[in-house]
Structure formats: C-alpha cells, structure tokens
Design a protein that fits this description.
- This protein is mainly α.
- The protein is about 60% helix and about 0% strand.
- It is built from two helices and no strands.
- The protein has helices at about 5-25, 40-60.
- Helix 1 (about 5-25) crosses helix 2.
Length: about 70
C-alpha cells in the first residue's frame, strides 16, 4: 500500500484518536497521563497508542494487511 492511499485512513485515525483522548478521556486521567503541550510525556504516548489502534482497526475493517484464506 502506498502512502498516498493510506493517507485518508491515517487522517481519520488521528482525528478520531485525538477526539477520544481529549474529549472523552483527558478529564478522567491522572496528571501523569495528561499530555502537556510541546512535551514528550506519557500522555503523548497514550494518544499515539489510541491513534495507532484505530489506524490498525480501520485496516482490518477494509481488509488491508489480512492474508487471504486458502481455497477450501
């Protein structure tokens, strides 16, 4: 898969992941898991993991990266 073809999936994953992190989780997280602007911290890592999980899930839904089944 080329980078251009995966760009819409990446955009959706980042937007949805950030919406989940900042709108739903941020106020309920302990201070050490809250991302601070311009810092590399545990909150940034958590946000990345959420976005990555959505990106991989969207690939599964579309069948990208899934090995074809052998004919039976």
């Amino acid at each position: 898969m080329t980078a251009i073809r995966s760009l819409p999936r990446a955009l959706v994953a980042v937007l949805a992941g950030n919406a989940i992190y900042f709108a739903l989780l941020f106020s309920h997280l302990p201070d050490w898991l809250r991302h601070r602007p311009f810092a590399l911290d545990a909150g940034l890592l958590l946000d990345f993991v959420i976005c990555l999980a959505i990106f991989l899930a969207l690939g599964r839904v579309r069948g990208i990266g899934v090995a074809p089944r052998p004919p039976s």
